[in-house]
């Protein structure tokens, strides 16, 4: 069995990302008791006929329609069917697991009022990798994703397991479980809150945290090929700019480039390098600062109750609170900010790629081609990087400002947290490809250097890892296959190990 993560109080974005990649999830006894206590409060609200949104009333614009006790279970079931209206390709395995983990974490705070049996069924599906098919599009916030998950619990909907599609009833039967009959509030709890946004946002911060190190590594390799300024990343002058991210990038670059005879040979030939080289600490550092801020927002959201209504008190004194905790404004803004930062990281990488392939500024063979005239080398893969950067620019338009009016003016402002997280992930996917192109181009440039001076120990190590993955390029194979192999290297390994000291 792989890693087991126990949910006691809260899950962090790091834990959500680990579960998304396959770690198992367990509920602590304390978390289980919180869930039981909250359900007892809902039962008391129902017994006493105390009005609560989605418990004994309709939802959305129907919030003032009172639902009789015998119809409350029907309301829960009907909500899942009516809200299962997502469209488009299903989410992937990792994204689905992230959302389910965030959903379970929200229920475990003990303010939702869903039965422990329902939560345990979700845990069983997650740990068995029996994953609901969730259409990826059609949600302004949260409702459609949660409904697709909820359908499986009642024996409807579809699941994917080991590449095979099963009905919800078949999936539960495989696990030795029977379809649940939902009770009051449970339908609303399953579709409400921000788990789809927090789950996807957890993936976004985790992926960017991995890619910023690779961005520093690829920039160091490009700088070693192209840089000519004496000591541009020295600690003292960089310390004059107050940014934790900038200082970290400066430290990384100094370590990555330490002892480079190749760089020493060209040092001092230029007063100032171009900004795509000289400003790496400033741009990459700003991205790291943005990442730290976004992670803090996501972790705060995971520590928060985000569904509506919340219940509190005790069975003797039950209370229900209608508020707007399901609105993910903070997540939407954070993901918009992170998306722009990731797009900027790709943009500066593409500018360095252009300098590597451009013979007017590189001092290297034109387009890093191994021959003259009959080979195009890396000419067109730079077009690919430019196209992805342009796509990122379009995707970076803020989702949180999209607005919209739904539910007959009852829900008349929308903050689009889930779409914001989804497009941040799309930008990160493009960033990964652009960095793979830069790494491949920088390795080709190293091979084509006229100087035989030695590279820095760390850039030499990265160069060797690239060459173990793909050989020198001679226009003898589709270049996109090489890029895909480097993407896999980048996705599955760290840029450097802690023992290397960066």
3D architecture notes:
- By secondary structure, the chain is mainly α.
- It folds into two domains: 4-192, Fumarase C, Chain B, domain 1 (Orthogonal Bundle); 201-315 and 325-500, Fumarase/aspartase (Central domain) (Fumarase C, Chain A, domain 2, Up-down Bundle), CATH 1.20.200.10.
- It is 56% helix and 7% strand.
- The model has no long low-confidence stretch (mean pLDDT 92).
CATH topology name of the largest domain, in short, is Fumarase C, Chain A, domain 2
Let me know the average pLDDT. Answer: 92
Radius of gyration: 26 Å
* Secondary-structure element order, N to C: EHEHHEHHEEHEEHHHHHHHHEEHHHHHH
**Secondary structure tally: strands:** 9
Classification by helices and strands: mainly alpha
The CATH level-2 architecture of the largest domain is identified as Up-down Bundle
Contiguous uncertain segments of 5+ residues? none
CATH class of the largest domain: Mainly Alpha
Please report the distance between the alpha carbons of the first and last residues: 32 Å
In CATH, what is the homologous superfamily of the largest domain? Fumarase/aspartase (Central domain)
Count of DSSP helices? Answer: 20
Largest sheet: 3 strands, antiparallel
Strand arrangement across the biggest beta sheet: 4-6-7
Count of individual domains = 2
Beta strand %: 5-15%
In which range does the helix fraction lie? 55-70%
Shape: elongated
GO molecular function, one term: histidine ammonia-lyase activity
Pfam family, one: Lyase_aromatic
Protein name: Histidine ammonia-lyase
Keywords: Lyase
Give the secondary structure arrangement, pairings included:
Blueprint: E1 4-7, H1 13-20, E2 24-27, H2 29-48, H3 72-83, E3 87-90, H4 93-107, H5 116-127, E4 131-132, E5 135-137, H6 143-153, E6 158-161, E7 164-167, H7 168-174, H8 186-191, H9 195-226, H10 235-238, H11 244-256, H12 261-266, H13 275-278, H14 280-302, E8 310-313, E9 318-321, H15 329-357, H16 359-362, H17 379-395, H18 417-448, H19 457-469, H20 479-492
Parallel strand pairs: 1-2
Antiparallel strand pairs: 3-5, 4-6, 6-7, 8-9
Helix pairs in contact: 1-4, 1-9, 3-6, 4-5, 4-9, 9-11, 9-14, 9-15, 9-18, 11-14, 14-15, 15-17, 15-18, 17-18, 18-20
